[in-house]
Amino acid sequence: MCGIVGYIGQQDAYPIVIKGLKRLEYRGYDSAGVAINSGNNVNVYKRKGKVSDLEQFTLNKDISGCIGMGHTRWATHGIPNDVNAHPHISMNGKFVIIHNGIIENYAYLKKKMIARHYEFKSETDTEVLANLIEYIYMFGNVSAEVAVRLALTKVIGAYGLVVMCIDEPDKLIAARNSSPLVIGLGQKEYFIASDATPFVEYTDQVVYLDNQNVAIISRDGIQIKTIKNDIVNPDIKKIDIDINEIEKGGFNDYMLKEIYEQPKSITDTMRGRVFQNDNYISLGGLLDVMPRLMNARRVIIVGCGTSWHAGLVGEYLFEEYARVPVEVEYASEFRYRNPIINSEDVVIAISQSGETADTLAAIQLAKKCGACVIGICNVVGSTLSRETDAGVYTHAGPEIGVASTKAFTTQVTVLAMMALMIGKNKFNIKQEQYHELLSELISIPTKIEHTLQSASKIEEVARLYKDSSNFLYLGRGCYYPVALEGALKLKEISYIHAEGYPAAEMKHGPIALIDDKMPVVVIATKDKGYEKIVNNIQEVKARKGIVIAVVSEGDQTIASMADHVLEVPVFNTAIGAILTIIPLQLLSYYIAIFRGCNVDQPRNLAKSVTVE
Ligand code: M6R
User: Fold this and answer.
1) Mean pLDDT in the chain?
2) Which of 292-296, 333-337, 454-458, 491-495 has the lowest mean pLDDT?
3) pLDDT of 277
4) At what angle do helices 581-594 and 406-425 cross, to 10 degrees?
5) Residue 354: partners with Cβ closer than 8 Å, 6 or more residues away
6) How many whole angstroms from 196 Cα to the centroid of ligand 1?
7) Does ligand 1 have an atom closer than 6 angstroms to the CB of 352?
8) What average pLDDT does range 79-101 have in this prediction?
9) Pick from 244, 205, 192, 144: which is nearest to 13 by CA?
10) Which of 31, 179, 412, 417 can bridge 100 by disulfide, Cβ–Cβ 3.0-4.6 Å?
11) Which protein residue has the closest C-alpha to ligand 1 atom 9?
């Protein structure tokens, strides 16, 4: 949550910072602000709203200078308005600061600062930090760097921050604890950002800042220290992000682009890992932990939101093929319980961003209990990828739309590969069946391409139900998590209330909601529970509900009873479950578009939830 960009070098900072903020807008878009050092002065401009509103506001203002920083906010402390927008300036004007995260003891610190006659303009925790740094600087008579480090020793909470000191204008000071920051290294120029996308066109050399580390950055170089003043040697990494991957590429929205990218992203997820001719799957990132994975007493999958839904599909796949007991937990619940975990357990943490605070905390807990921790993650170099014992990247490419689409299908692809790999090694799957499963897996991208061709039909259905106030999504077995995911997609981008239920549970309560105004989306492909789901459709129709059914191509039985059918190609194994989410992604997308919603930046949300 919140995006941070900083620049120090020879170029004009403002355009670099603004372009970077636009790329980070997926992290929050409640307000935006910049601070640019013009040489004589630090000019701070901030505005409620999007980065484009800030741009309008800065027209005809002095935006000159080669050192600058900017922030796009997802509000935690204080409503989204101009005053609470970052950057924040300390009371005596010595420090300017942008911050991502939450200072948990801010109320205590604020009280102390008020006792020292500090006054506050905003309701934010960040302003408290700005004033604390300034107080230590002025009354401790220390350098800006020392003041920042000492202040951070007093802070409990999460921060990714960048600080400018008016008296030391030729440097930026950045610090991180639990909120990501990456430094891009150029020729006599440096970039700081919440992820590497703001500076991919300038450099591919980066340093990921570790927790409780501070970077002192000038045009002549960077120095990294812990907040306790121990020197840290920068670990320089090379990143590989293609600039085209972070542009819209002719689509109106990132979400639609990402829906259409799924055949490619799933192909990339399987590339070099699935060998159909030789009948095997190899996941290089898991080699070191294979003995623990093969002998796991239990697998616990943790994640949030869509990643949790992928985990639920994974539960079916693992139980079906790997034959190992699986529990799937919301990371946010898991971390606050006292779960019984031991060294024979394997914990799989799933996260697109690799920065979700609850998932990272769940990893720490699992590690403390001695479990083997495996990550499934999309963002290369993210905290999750660095803090797990082993892992598999999804290789979906950057996902910028706040609603996860390709992240889900690639996460399920990874879980399917893992389940099949373990299942084969345990001799649970016969050679012939294995071959069939691999063929199914490999055919998924082509089948998704085929499904995407019915987009215009789905658009027509969406037009009919765009004004509905509620939707119910039903599925059985591995389609139950698909129902949950379909409902989540609709909720988050169209603001229509939607619930996902196991189809058989409908009669235990939700059936009371059904009337002739209630669209019920049923995942009813020809699979194990087919006859049962046909019965569920009859039950909905008997109560005059509107049935939109996702069916296997050519299914006349359901076509004759449902109001609308959305077809997907025929598949024979649980792996095909991935296909059924595609029509649901498109349905929610078109409904949201018809309702005039901003699908890429839905209200109140942010892509990467780095606060608890
Ligand atoms: O980056 P993560 O996968 O850890 O994110 C988890 C959730 O915040 C995320 O899936 C969220 O639910 C999406 N907006 C769903 O579309």
Assistant:
1) 94
2) 333-337
3) 84
4) 170
5) 375, 377, 378, 379, 382, 383, 384, 385
6) 19
7) yes
8) 95
9) 192
10) 179
11) 305
> 114 C-alpha vs ligand 1 centroid, how far in Å?
38
pLDDT for position 452: 97
401 token code pair: 């739309």
Q: What is the pLDDT of residues 564-583, one digit of tens each?
A: 999 999 987 878 889 999 99
Q: Which residues are catalytic?
A: 2, 607
Specify the residue with its C-alpha closest to ligand 1, atom 12. Answer: 305
Whether the Cβ atoms of residue 434 and residue 424 lie closer than 8 Å to each other: yes
Whether the Cβ atoms of residue 46 and residue 54 lie closer than 8 Å to each other: yes
Task: Give helix 13-24 / helix 51-58 axis angle, nearest 10°.
Answer: 160
pLDDT for residue 506 is more than 90:
no
Token pair 């900072």 in the structure block, residue: 13
Q: From the CB of 601, is ligand 1 less than 6 Å away? A: no
Chain position carrying tokens 């606050």? 336
pLDDT higher than 80, residue 607: no
Q: Ligand 1 centre and the CA of 398: distance in Å?
A: 14
Q: pLDDT tens-digit profile of 102-135?
A: 898 999 999 999 999 999 999 999 999 999 999 9
Cα–Cα distance, 587 to 256 (Å, whole number): 11
Ligand 1 centroid to 225 CA: how many Å?
A: 32
Q: Whose CA is nearest to atom 8 of ligand 1?
A: 305
Query: Does 304 contact ligand 1 (Cβ within 6 A)?
Result: yes
Residue 48 pLDDT class (50, 70, 90 cuts): very high
- Contact 540 CB / ligand 1 (< 6 Å): no
Q: Would you tell me how many other CB atoms lie within 10 Å of the CB of residue 448? A: 25
Record the tokens describing residue 560, joined without a space.
């004759």
